[in-house]
Amino acid sequence: MLLAGNWKMHGLRGAVAEIRALGRGLNGAPLPADILVCPPATLINEAVKAAEGTRIVIGGQNCHAEPSGAFTGEISAEMLRDAGANAVILGHSERRQFYGETDAMVRAKAEAASRAGLIALICVGEDERQRDAGEAVSVVQKQLDGSVPASAPADPIDLVIAYEPVWAIGTGRTPNPEQIAEMHAAIRAWLADRFGAAADQMRILYGGSVKPENAGTILAVTNVDGALIGGASLKAGDFLAIIRAVPQR
Ligand code: 13P
Q1: Helix (H, G, I), strand (E, B) or coil at 226
Q2: Ligand 1 centroid to residue 205 C-alpha, Å
Q3: Which of 2, 150, 207, 211 is 20 to 30 A from 225, alpha carbon to alpha carbon?
C-alpha cells in the first residue's frame, strides 16, 4: 500500500511544518502503507530535512526527460534525486491539460525517472465525456500504451500507476467502488500483458477526491494499492486520518 500526497502548487515555507506534524503523528505506530509527500519543488529540500528520521518519503510533481541542458525553468529527474527526492509524479491530468504533455512526453519522463533512480507515478484517467460515452477503459489503456516505458524498472515497485478520473479531481465526486474495481482490474491486466508476473508487485493507486470519509471504502477495493491525494494531503490531520482508514488486508 502507498499513500501519496500531491500538494500541487500549494505551500510556502511554513507548510513544511505539516510534514513534521505528519511525522510526529506516525511516530512509533506500525505503518499500514508507505507514505509519500510531493510538495512544490521549492520545498523539496526542506521537506526532506523535515522527513528525516520518519518513514515519510519526499517526491517531485514533474521532471524533464533530459538530465541537464538549456531548458530554462525545468528540473531534471537527477536534480530531484540530488535534492533528496525518491519519487516523481508524471503525466498528471493538470500537466496533460494545461501544459500539453503528451503520452510520449510522459513516457520519456518516466524513463528519465528510472535512470535517476526515482519511483515513477504515472497518472492516467478519463474525462467526464469519455466516461459518459463508455470509453473510460479504452482511453486509459491507450494512455498506458503511450506513457509507460517498454521495460520494467529493475525493481517493479518503482513503477506506480495512478488512476485519476479527471472529473473526480477536486470535485468531491468519486467513481463508485464497482467502477474503481473495473478500471483497476483493467490496469492490472494491461500491466500483466506488458510485464508478466512483475505486474503483481506494481502498485495501482486511485486518485480524485480521496478524503478521510471515503478512504476506507476506496482502499478496500480489489487492485487498489493506495491513493494519490490532493487537497486532503495538505493538512497533517487529514492525511493521518486517511492513513488510519487503511483497511487490514
Ligand atoms: P484531490 O484529492 O484534491 O481531488 O486531487 C487529486 C489529485 O489530483 C491528486 O493528484
Answers
A1: strand
A2: 12
A3: 150
Q: What's the pLDDT tens digit per position in 34-73?
A: 999 999 999 999 999 999 999 999 999 999 999 999 999 9
Query: Which amino acid appears at position 20 of this protein?
Result: R
Q: Spell out where the chain has E strands.
A: 2-6, 34-38, 56-60, 87-90, 119-124, 159-163, 203-207, 226-229
List pLDDT tens digits, range 162-206.
999 999 999 999 999 999 999 999 999 999 999 999 999 999 999
Question: Closest by alpha carbon to 237, among 21, 2, 16, 13?
Answer: 21
CA atoms in the 13 A half-sphere facing the CB of 49: 6
Which residue, by CA, sits nearest to atom 2 of ligand 1?
A: 230
Average pLDDT over residues 126-142: 98
How far is the centre of ligand 1, averaged over its atoms, from the C-alpha of 3 (Å)?
12
Q: Could you count the other beta carbons within 10 Å of the beta carbon of residue 200?
A: 11
CA 238 to ligand 1 centroid distance, Å: 13
* Residue 230 DSSP symbol: S
User: Each residue of 19-39: pLDDT tens digit?
Assistant: 999 999 998 778 999 999 999
Ligand 1 pocket by Cβ (under 6 Å): 6, 92, 164, 169-170, 207-210, 228-232
CA-nearest residue, atom 5 of ligand 1:
230
Contact (CB, 8 A) for 60 and 44:
yes
Grid cell at residue 176:
463508485
pTM above 0.85?
A: yes
